Amino acid sequence: MKNLFLERNCLKSANQLYRWSLSYEISKSTKEIIFIGLNPSLSDSFFLDSTTKKIIKISKKHNYGKLRLINLFALITSNPKKLFNHKNPVGYLNNEYIYKNLKHWSENKNCDLWLGWGNKGKFLNRNKKILKKIMQYNSIRKNHFNNCFGPLLIKKTIKDNPIHPLYCSDNSILQSYL
Known about the structure:
The chain has helices spanning 50-61, 80-85, 94-107, 126-144; strands at residues 7-12, 19-25, 32-37, 66-71, 111-115, 152-153, 175-176.
């Protein structure tokens, strides 16, 4: 699958415990999308896990050229118990990368923001903390652009959280979070 990308970039901590962002250029389209998930599993510049593959498929369907994945928690693990029991699952630079990406979104009309952290995003109230920041940057975005999209999702869970993309069809439609 590595030949399917025009460009790839993975930013991890020096100790390889945290992933700050994962970016792919998947086509020449000028549209960008930033996806905020729960936490990184094993995907990097060379290996794609099931969630990343699903995000790429849905992003391609919606004609995005660039895709960036960031997360509420930067700890790399496919085991939720490790995430919930770790002393610092957020990671020391994660908020900086989230805010940098939200700023980019607020300043670029061709960039969309997709939320998909699922119900586990409420751990340590991360969903509320990051949603508050998203709404602040959404206000900035609205001041910059007319008729721009706010944050997007596929749908909400029964518990009112943006659904994790792994539980959705490849043909899912992104819609307004608000």
